[in-house]
Amino acid sequence: MTARVGESASTETLAGLLAAQAAADGSRMAIAFPDEELSFAELHAKADGMARALAANGIGPGDRVGIFMPNALEYIQLIFAVSLVGAQLVPINARFKRRELAHVIANSELAILFTSPAIPEVDFPGIVHDALQTLQTRPAVVIAGEALDAFVAAGASAPGVRPTGSADDVAVVLYTSGTAAAPKGCELTHRAVINAWRSYADGIGLAADTPLWAPCPLFHVGGIGPLTACVLRGATMVSAPHFVARGRDTTVKVNTKPYRLPAFASLIATLRQTNSRIELDPFWSRVERGEDVSKEIALTPRSRL
């Protein structure tokens, strides 16, 4: 009998971390966005479905899968789905225009590209279309929404996939910003990503059920890293497509519990060790003291990516 996606995954891979948390206590909240939350079991199930669809479309070990979209639950599900089939994730800067995007698609030899419907700030499908017109070899493209739902549904009856990845396989190919030259891809193994963010989790004392505010874009190590740390520790990653540090629009709440920022408090303490004269405004002073700041953390779709 063929094993289901994730059954034999070890915790040496990103997919293995998620599978372990789903098996240990799947009811814990894994991801919290403004309008939706996912437990570890739910996140694993959705990643499983996407992995089956990827495998049904011929995506497997060594293939590269691009994601060109703002932060979204689908983005996170795809991150683990890519790992489940042993492929390599290529998260693409959501600020890239036609030229940079075309370079990354060609340079990474993407097998498939997932993108987002247009939003007020960015016409993702339009940029993808323009970029592909400059290329001779073009990957398959799937747009989040109905097309992605259909993609996943078509793979629902596909057989399970037994992960073959190891800690030393490439997990993520991160591209530089392209400010001074064409973006360059940096290959990161599962071991490198997990070990780096295990140290981060240890440093800030990240524990199970702890909410970690991580608004950085998922195309950046500052987004993928905290996600890895949260899944490693069974903590909750709190994020959003767009954000501002403070405001009056939509307050972030996690199960109505008081919201604190232990990671930033630890970082401030580290900074004070090197410069005791650091001055903080009232908001960050409250963060440093470990106070509840839930009424002052706000999200708004009008913010920049």
Which labels suit this protein?
Rossmann fold; disordered C terminus; 4-stranded mixed β-sheet; alpha/beta; 305 residues; single chain; 2 domains; 4-stranded parallel β-sheet; globular
Explain what you see.
By secondary structure, the protein is of the alpha/beta class. It folds into two domains: 177 residues, ANL, N-terminal domain (Rossmann fold, 3-Layer(aba) Sandwich), CATH 3.40.50.12780; 50 residues, no CATH class. It is 39% helix and 15% strand. The protein contains ten helices and twelve strands. The N terminus and C terminus are likely disordered.
What is the fold-level CATH name, i.e. the topology of the largest domain? Rossmann fold
* Proportion in helices: 25-40%
Number of domains: 2
Task: List the strand order in the largest sheet.
Answer: 2-1-10-9
| Largest pleated sheet | 4 strands, mixed
Spans of at least 5 consecutive residues whose pLDDT stays below 50 are: 1-9, 245-259, 298-305
How far is it from the N-terminal to the C-terminal residue, by CA?
Answer: 45 Å
Strand proportion: 15-25%
Oligomer: single chain
CATH-wise, what's the superfamily of the largest domain?
ANL, N-terminal domain
Number of H/I helices: 10
Alpha-beta classification:
alpha/beta
Shape: globular
Mean pLDDT figure:
84
Number of extended strands: 12
